[in-house]
Specification:
single chain, 222 residues, Rossmann fold, Alpha-Beta Plaits, six-stranded parallel sheet, five-stranded antiparallel sheet, Trk_Ktr_HKT_K-transport, TrkA family potassium uptake protein, NAD(P)-bd_dom_sf
Length: 222
């Protein structure tokens, strides 16, 4: 039977060390088709049966990266941390390929500055941003994600289309998805506590709480 996918999209992950592997495995669990590039052949083989595709190659080399067709991906995550040079060259190759959303791990403030100068869209410090957490943020709907040990999460996210122009009572999100909209924020205003009469606009940001798996279902909606 075909696997149900919350996020029906192909994602490219480069580097399967601790951070990259955690991001890749969590994105696979969320339903993404994860394509990975890993320079260490043994490490690539280790994940070959767990991800959609794993290529043993050096992504810092444009000709080797080209085998993965990076231009076909909307999102790429660079988890390389052992070599700043490889990280920068790989990120630069992804920028040259025109990948719209590039996330890259930084090991220092200077590394982060150079990644941003190259054109990386999201720079991650693993001490603050785990690979697991980043996996939930790459879909562009969630802007913040905190998960607790019991599978409960609180997220900051943009509303799905089905909520826009309706009050919380009209959409009945709590009954439909099993999550609670705690607060909303309109541009230029502070967060306000959500009530049934709260009307959700296109540019609102919502604070949503509930079981992480149920929040993922809401975040997967167009």
């Amino acid at each position: 039977m075909a696997r149900h996918r919350l996020f029906d999209e192909d994602i490219l992950v480069i580097g399967l060390g601790r951070f990259g592997a955690a991001a890749a495995i969590e994105m696979d669990r969320l339903g993404y088709r994860v394509h990975a590039i890993e320079g260490d052949g043994a490490q690539a083989e280790k994940f070959s049966r767990r991800l959609t595709r794993v290529l043993a190659a050096d992504a810092a080399d444009p000709s080797q990266l080209a085998q993965a067709k990076p231009q076909d991906f909307r999102v790429a995550v660079v988890g390389i941390g052992t070599s700043i040079e490889s990280s920068l060259l790989t990120a630069g190759n992804l920028v040259d390929a025109g990948v719209p959303s590039i996330w890259a791990k930084a090991v220092s403030a200077e590394h982060a500055r150079l990644l941003e100068r190259i054109g990386v869209h999201h720079v991650i410090f693993p001490e603050a941003e785990s690979g697991n957490r980043v996996a939930h943020l790459v879909n562009d709907r969630m802007m913040g994600y905190i998960e607790f040990e019991d599978g409960y999460a609180i997220v900051k996210m943009s509303p799905p289309q089905e909520m826009i122009g309706f009050t919380l009572a009209e959409t009945d999100i709590r009954k439909k998805y099993g999550v609670t909209v705690v607060g909303v924020k309109a541009p230029g205003e502070d967060f306000t506590h959500a009530v049934p009469e709260t009307k959700v606009g296109r540019h609102h940001i919502m604070i949503v709480s509930g079981p992480s798996k149920l929040i993922e279902q809401l975040a997967s909606r167009p």
